[in-house]
Design a protein that fits this description.
The complex is a heterodimer of chains A (291) and B (415).
Chain A lengths: L1 H33 L16 H8 L1 H34 L4 H13 L2 H12 L5 H8 L13 H29 L3 H9 L4 H12 L1 H16 L3 H7 L10 H9 L5 H32 L1
Chain B lengths: L3 H29 L1 E7 L10 H11 L3 E7 L2 H13 L6 E4 L1 H9 L17 H7 E2 L2 E2 L2 E2 L2 E9 H6 L9 H13 L3 E3 L6 H13 L4 H6 L8 H15 L5 H4 L7 H7 L3 E7 L3 H5 L6 E4 L10 E5 L2 E4 L6 H10 L3 H11 L17 H8 L3 E3 L9 H16 L5 H14 L1
Parallel strand pairs in B: 1-2, 1-3, 8-9, 11-13
Antiparallel strand pairs in B: 3-12, 4-5, 6-12, 7-9, 7-10, 7-11
Helix pairs in contact in B: 8-10, 17-18
The chains are: A mainly alpha (291), B alpha/beta (415).
C-alpha cells in the first residue's frame, strides 16, 4: 500500500505528460523525422539524409535569413523594452491617466496583424504615404524615403511597426512590476533627499529585475518566430532584407511544397530559440539574484 | 356504421401509409441524386468567374447531380486540400494549377481524365504542358495574358497615340512622359520587372526554356537573359523609372492603386486586373503586349488553372460529367468573359475585353511566350528567387547581370 502511495504522485502528472507528449513532443519528433525527407505534403516521404541541413548551412540565403532574424530580434527587444520601461515609469507617476493610457497602449496588440500590416504599408508608401507626407508637411522633404522598399531602412521600418504593436504588453508587465515595489522604499529615499533619477536608477530598476526578465524572454521568443508583418508588408523583400527564418519556412511549405526542407528549417529555428531563451534566462536570473 | 374508434384507426393507418409512400418517394429521389463536392479559388464575390451561374446551368441540365460548391482561396488550397487528399477525404472535383497537378498526380491522388472529345481541341502549347507521361490529370479552363497596362490618357497628352510595343518605342515614350513630369513605368521588382525580363529572355531564345529549367544549360552567361536584363538598365537610363524608388513597391497593392490612380503611365501586370481598373471611370487604359525587340511586342500567356478529379471519388461518372460540361464552348466562354481570358481550345471563344486589342494583335502575330512556371518548364521555387533578385538588381543597376542570373541557377541546382 505504501509502495502504491509512493507512485501515486506520478498518476497526478500523467494527464499533463500525455497532453505534452501528444501536442508538443510528438509534433516536434515528427518534424525532426520529416526534416530528413523530401516530403512534398502528400504522398511518400523519401529519406534524403542530411541533405536539407546541408542546404541550409551552405546556401548564403539561409544564413542571411538567420542574421536578419537575429538583428530584427535585437532591435525589437532593446527598443521595445526601453520604450515599455519609459511609458511604465511615466504612467506610474501619472495616476489620473494611467488606466486610460495603458488601455490605449494595449489597443494595437488587439488588432489583427493583417490590418496593422496594411495600415503601416500605407504609412510607409513612397507615393503619397503618410510618413513622407508628414515629413513634407514639416519641411523635411530631404528625409523622405521608400521606407520598406529600401533595404537599409526596411527592417527598421518593420521593427517600428512591431514595437508599436506590442509595446503595450511590455508596459503592462513593467507596471505590474511597479505595483510590487513597496511604497516605503520610495518614501524613505525621498526623506534621504534623493533625486527622481537616483530613485529610478537605484531603487526602481533593481526591483524591476523580474519584469525585465519576463519582458526580454517573452519578446525575444515572440520576435525570433515572427513572420506576420514581414509577410504582409514586404514578403521578405526588398531582396531578402526582411526575410526572416519563419518566412523562409512558410515560403518553403506553401508555394514550393518542400515540407521536408521546411521541417529542417523549423528544427534549426527551434534550436536557435531554445539556445537564446536558455542563455538569456540564465543570465537574467543570475542578474536578479545579484541585485 | 363506424364507431369513432374505428374511424380514428382507419385514419391513422391511411396517414401512416401515405407518410410511408412519401418517405419512400423522397428516399428514392435522394438515391437518384448525386452530390458532387467541388472546390475552387474562383466563384466568390470578388472573382466570380461566372461559376455560380455556370453551376446553376449545370444543375439544370443534369437534375440528377447536385453541386456542393466551396470557395477556397489559392493560398488556402495549399493548406486545406493536401491533408484531405492524404486522408482519403478529398472533394470530388478541385480547381488546380500545374504545380499542384504535378505533386498530387505524382502521389497518385488524382484520377487520369478521359481525353475523348476535348484533348485534341487544345492548343499545342497547352496540351504539351498538361500531359504528364501518358496521362492527363487536368482539364484546362483558361489562359490569361500578362502584358503592359498603358494609361492612354497620359500617353495621348504627350503626343503618343499607340502603346509602345518595342523597346525603342518604350524608351521614346519614357523620355516624353518624363519630360512632361509624368512617372512613366512602374517596373516593381516583385512581379512587373520579372515579367519583363522573363518575356524578353524567352522571346530572344524560346528553345532554351526547357534546358534552363532543367539545369541542362545555365542562366549565367545566357545571351538572351543577359540581353533582357541589360534592357532593364537601358530603360532606367532612358528615364523610365528610378530603380531605387520602384524596386520594393508592393506589386499586389501599392502598385495597383498607383496605376489605377493615374500616377504612372505604364505597368506590366496580369489581365486579371482589367476588371479592377475598369472600375475607375477616369482611367483610359489599354492592355498591350510587353515591349520587346520584335515589332509586335511579346504576349506572355499564363496557363492558370483547370479541373482535376480526385482518385478517391466515389462519383467518378458525375465528376466526369461536370468536367465535360466546361469543355463545351457555350459554357466555358462565360467563364472566360468574366475572367478576361483566352480559351485553352484552338476553336474556343475568347473572353478578352476589347481594350486588350493590342495584346490580341501580338498573339495573332505569333508573339506569344508561355509563362514557364504555369507550364512547369521552370520549377516553382525559382519564381520567388527571380522576384527577389530582380528587386536587388533594380536597387543597384550597376550590378553585373550575371550575378543575378547565377542566383537563378543556384535554385535550379537545389531542385
Amino acid at each position: 500500500m505504501q509502495r502504491f502511495a509512493k507512485y501515486k504522485i506520478y498518476l497526478f502528472v500523467l494527464p499533463a505528460v500525455i497532453v505534452l507528449g501528444a501536442f508538443f513532443i510528438y509534433p516536434i519528433l515528427l518534424t525532426a523525422k520529416l526534416s530528413f525527407t523530401d516530403f512534398t505534403g502528400v504522398g511518400v516521404a523519401n529519406d534524403v539524409g542530411w541533405k536539407n541541413y546541408e542546404r541550409i548551412f551552405t546556401r548564403s540565403r539561409y544564413v542571411d535569413a538567420l542574421k536578419v532574424t537575429l538583428f530584427f530580434t535585437l532591435i525589437v527587444v532593446v527598443i521595445q523594452t526601453a520604450s515599455g520601461l519609459f511609458f511604465a515609469s511615466l504612467l506610474n507617476r501619472l495616476h489620473s491617466i494611467r488606466n486610460l493610457c495603458r488601455a490605449a497602449l494595449f489597443l494595437p496588440a488587439m488588432m489583427s496583424f493583417v490590418i496593422v500590416g496594411y495600415v503601416w504599408q500605407f504609412i510607409y508608401s513612397p507615393f503619397n504615404g503618410g510618413l513622407n507626407a508628414l515629413l513634407a508637411g514639416i519641411g523635411l522633404e530631404s528625409l523622405q524615403n521608400n521606407w520598406i522598399g529600401d533595404p537599409d531602412t526596411a527592417l527598421f521600418a518593420l521593427a517600428f511597426a512591431h514595437i508599436w504593436m506590442f509595446v503595450g504588453y511590455t508596459t503592462a508587465i513593467f507596471l505590474a512590476g511597479y505595483a510590487g515595489i513597496p511604497q516605503e522604499l520610495d518614501e524613505a529615499a525621498r526623506i534621504e533627499g534623493t533625486s527622481a533619477w537616483q530613485r529610478f536608477r537605484h531603487i526602481e530598476i533593481p526591483l524591476l529585475a523580474p519584469s525585465f526578465t519576463i519582458n526580454i524572454v517573452l519578446s525575444t521568443i515572440g520576435t525570433l518566430k515572427t513572420f506576420e508583418l514581414p509577410f504582409i508588408m514586404t514578403r521578405g523583400g526588398p531582396d531578402g532584407a526582411t526575410r526572416t527564418l519563419s518566412l523562409h519556412i512558410i515560403d518553403s511549405l506553401f508555394g514550393k511544397y518542400k515540407f521536408g526542407f521546411a521541417s529542417a528549417l523549423s528544427i534549426v529555428m527551434l534550436i536557435l530559440v531554445i539556445v537564446v531563451a536558455y542563455a538569456q534566462n540564465r543570465i537574467l536570473r543570475s542578474r536578479e539574484e545579484q541585485l | 356504421m363506424h364507431t369513432p374508434k374505428s374511424r380514428f384507426l382507419r385514419s391513422l393507418i391511411s396517414r401512416l401509409i401515405t407518410g410511408a409512400i412519401v418517405l419512400m418517394g423522397l428516399s428514392t429521389a435522394s438515391l437518384a441524386t448525386v452530390t458532387l463536392e467541388v472546390t475552387a479559388w474562383k466563384g466568390n464575390d470578388t472573382e466570380p468567374a461566372a461559376l455560380p451561374e455556370l453551376i446553376e446551368r449545370f444543375e439544370a441540365a443534369n437534375p440528377d447531380i447536385s453541386i456542393d460548391f466551396s470557395y477556397i482561396s489559392r493560398s488556402d488550397t495549399d493548406i486545406v486540400l493536401p491533408p484531405r487528399l492524404q486522408g482519403g477525404e478529398a472533394p470530388d472535383v478541385m480547381m488546380a494549377d500545374m504545380p499542384l497537378v504535378k505533386i498530387w498526380s505524382d502521389a497518385g491522388l488524382l484520377a487520369p481524365l478521359d481525353k475523348d472529345g476535348w484533348y485534341d481541341r487544345l492548343t499545342d502549347q497547352i496540351s504539351q504542358a498538361i500531359t504528364l507521361g501518358d496521362n492527363v490529370y487536368v482539364m484546362p479552363l483558361e489562359v490569361i495574358g500578362m502584358g503592359n497596362f498603358v494609361n492612354m490618357g497620359l500617353l495621348n497628352a504627350v503626343g503618343i497615340d499607340a502603346p509602345p510595343t518595342t523597346i525603342d518605342a518604350l524608351k521614346d515614350a519614357c523620355q516624353k512622359l518624363s519630360a512632361a513630369g509624368t512617372q512613366p513605368l512602374l517596373l516593381a521588382g516583385g512581379f512587373p520587372a520579372p515579367l519583363f525580363a522573363i518575356a524578353n529572355g524567352l522571346e530572344a531564345d524560346p528553345a532554351d526554356a526547357g534546358a534552363l529549367g532543367s539545369g541542362a544549360t545555365t542562366f549565367e552567361g545566357n545571351d538572351a537573359f543577359m540581353g533582357a536584363l541589360n534592357h532593364v538598365k537601358d530603360l532606367q537610363q532612358a528615364g523610365c523609372f528610378d530603380g531605387e524608388t520602384i524596386a520594393g513597391v508592393d506589386p499586389w497593392s501599392t502598385a495597383l492603386s498607383e496605376f489605377k490612380a493615374g500616377n504612372f503611365a505604364m505597368m506590366p501586370q496580369g489581365a486579371w486586373n482589367i476588371q479592377n481598373f475598369s472600375s475607375a471611370p477616369e482611367l483610359d487604359f489599354v492592355f498591350a503586349p510587353l515591349p520587346s525587340s520584335k515589332d509586335t511586342g511579346v504576349a506572355l500567356d499564363l496557363f492558370g488553372f483547370g479541373w482535376v478529379i480526385s482518385a478517391q471519388t466515389e462519383q467518378a461518372e458525375a465528376a466526369k460529367t461536370f468536367v465535360d460540361f466546361f469543355t463545351d464552348d457555350a459554357n466555358l466562354k462565360e467563364l472566360l468573359k468574366a475572367e478576361s481570358a483566352y480559351s485553352p481550345f484552338s476553336d474556343g471563344t475568347h473572353g478578352m475585353a476589347s481594350l486588350a486589342a493590342p495584346y490580341d494583335a501580338a498573339r495573332e502575330n505569333g508573339g506569344t511566350v508561355m509563362f514557364p512556371f504555369g507550364v512547369l518548364t521552370w520549377p516553382k521555387a525559382l519564381e520567388g528567387e527571380i522576384f527577389d533578385s530582380m528587386t536587388g538588381f533594380l536597387l543597384d543597376l550597376d550590378k553585373d547581370a550575371n550575378d543575378v542570373l547565377s542566383r537563378w541557377d543556384e535554385i535550379i541546382e537545389d531542385q
